[in-house]
Amino acid sequence: QLSCLVKVVLLHGTPKDLDSYPKELLLFLSPSDYAVTGSCMQYFANIGKANLDVLQRESSQRKRLLLEALACLKIPGTEVNEENAEILGRLVCDLGGEYIRSSGGNLLRQLIQCESFRPDQEEAIRSVISSGNTTFGPPEEWSAFTLNELSGLIPVFDHSILQKIPK
Fold first, then answer.
1. What is its main location (predicted)?
2. Where are the domains of the chain?
3. Which of 140, 146, 149, 157 has the most CB within a 10 Å radius?
4. What is the pLDDT of residues 68-81, one digit of tens each?
């Protein structure tokens, strides 16, 4: 339905008020379609707020969006800084474990929003959390507030992390 709606919206050219449309509609546009109204960075900041689950998890469209976002943000390797993580938003849910490891704690706040994780992502999240080198600190120092902040990641924690958290 959304892809059909995009065709109708673009029938008479790209509207200047694309930001006022539902974010999920933008998933069916390309950054070049959006260029009329803003930068690729603005486009991906909007995409990052959309419900990506409108597209199938391993679909070519989602993979293309992620690759285009990484190119737009000029992320050459696998390290994503906090500013770019903020722009990527929910797109971080599609980043592989190597990105999660290389970025340290920079992706954790966005990863909290993900519905599910692949095994390589889970392993990387555990590794980053266990290191204690995040804004949340080591599990031994966590409070109820910290656990609340990390609530979306708790299902990924293994016994070695859980046993370190103070009662």
1. membrane
2. 1-74, 95-166
3. 157
4. 999 999 998 999 99
